[in-house]
Every structure is written in C-alpha cells, then in structure tokens.
Amino acid sequence: MIRFIEDPDEKRKISREVLEALTQWFEVEESREQYIRESAGWPFWAAYENDALAGFLCLKQTGDATAELAVMGVKKDYHRNGYGRRLFAVAKDYAVQKGYSFIQVKTVRSGMYEDYDITNEFYRSLGFKELEVLPEYWDEANPCQIYVMNLKSAVNTIATRHSYRGKFSDESVPREDLETIARCGIDAPSGCNKQTTDLIVVDDKDTLDKIKSLIDPPVAKTAPAMIVVLTRRINAYRDRCFAIQDYSAAIENMLLAIVELGYQSCWYEGHITDEDRICDKIASVLGVPGEYDVVCILPVGKALDDFHAPSKKAFSERVRFNHFGG
Question: Which of 5, 129, 148, 168 could form a disulfide with 44 if both were Cys (CB 3.0 to 4.6 A apart)?
C-alpha cells in the first residue's frame, strides 16, 4: 500500500527510520540529517507491507517546470519487491497532475561504485535518460550524474495516462485548451477518411448541469468542461463501416492531449449507452441530429484527488515476438 503523507512530524519519523537502515547509502550523518529535515516540507509518499514500513519517496521543486526525486529509500528486507517502482509511479502521476514537464534525479556517476551502478540502472529502467555529469556537485571523487525524464513526451504521456474518476477543481478550462484537445480528436485517423466522428465541446455551466442531471448513477459531477463524442454510420466500402474504430482513435488522442495539458479525464461510454440510453437524453439536450449517435462523454478538468496507475500484467504476459508461443 502507498500512502501520501502530509504531517511533517510523520514524514521526519518515516525518513529517519528508513535512512538509518540504509547506512551503505547514507553513511554521512550530516547528509542524512539534512534529508530528514528537508523531507518534512516536500511531497512525500510511504510504502507499507501490511502495517510494516517498507520505504518512502519525496519530491521537491527545482524550477517552474521541473520536479526532483529528492530521496527514495526502501528497506533491505523489501528490496526487489516492486516498492521502488510503485512509489515512483505515484510520484510521477503527482508531477504530471501538477503540470511539471520534467522529473530529474541526481546520483553518483555510473562506474564509481557498484551499489550506485545498480541504482542508476534502476533509474534507466524507469525511463530516465542520462543528461550530464556535474564533476563538482558533491566533490571531485563523487561526480554527480543527472538523469531526466520528460513527462511531456508522447511515450511518457501514454504511460502516465490513467482513468480519473475523482473530484475536479472548479477552475475553468480555457477555451484554447479545449480547442487543442478537440483538434487532437478530429486529427485521428478514420477508415477511408470518412471522418465519422464529430464532437460537441461543452463549457457552459447551465448546459453542463443539464447533462450531469441526466447521468444516473452520477459521474463527473464536478467537471468544469466536457467533450461529447458523436458518431454516424458511413460505410467505408461495400458494407464495411469503421465508425467504432474511428471514434475510439479520436477518444484516445483526446485523452492523451488532456493529460499533456495538465488535466484528467475518463472514457465514459458503457455508462451512458446502456439500456437506459442516457446518451439519447444527452443528444436531446444538445440538439444532435438523428443521423448521429452520442457514444461517449469525456469530462475535462484539474484533478483534486491523488490517484495512481492500476495494476497491470507483466509486459511478457501480453507481448510476444514472432510467434504466440515464442
């Protein structure tokens, strides 16, 4: 279990317990005490196995666009159990939600010490890239290696995007951002370029309230904006229609754009297209012509609640090369 810790005293207690157990990395007492003091003011997460503390991670802001992985520690008894990766996953989600473009981490240069070689390989496995060496950051014998992760790259946006079903801030979404998201949607490929997907962007409060009142059980009640996805059946050739594939591609494009711009969303389709046909009621509110079907709503807004990646199967369970049984 991963917990976000807010109490400064609890942060200091947790960091002390873990760092004092990691004497091979934090031999210098002065440095350890500095981390313990400073961690009380940083965003902070702790990992637990049942009720036992396994490790922690904290971030700090180093610039308008950059967060730094200030310190992470996992007790020796819990090494190689995935706690470091899970701690980093929630911290990365937090950095994306807060609008950071980069996460960086400073460590001893590869090749200096075996323990740090293992640590640096861990950062590379998370997706960090080596940026530069700062020979005098610590001292001449321990040059500092900077690793950076670009949170705005397409690959990291895809890895970071998860469905968000929590509460939204009441901060409005600028029309410019909504236009960017919608443009990403209509830029998606469509079968034989039939362009079967249309969108209605809703940012008028009264209209939003009417739509939200129709959705039972309620979802996205606090979203300050919404994109309603429409489809119409146009055959690409003979009797083949790719409208489902078309709107699916458009929705995924928009979900990625939403995260890229610092917002969150969730793909609500089955909830509104079930037997009670909430989608038809939404279509009526929005004056949608009969040849179109409402198939999805995407709430858009700033997330208020913390969230993190769901558990997924290992890469090797779902990806194969050259042959299914390979």
Answer: 5
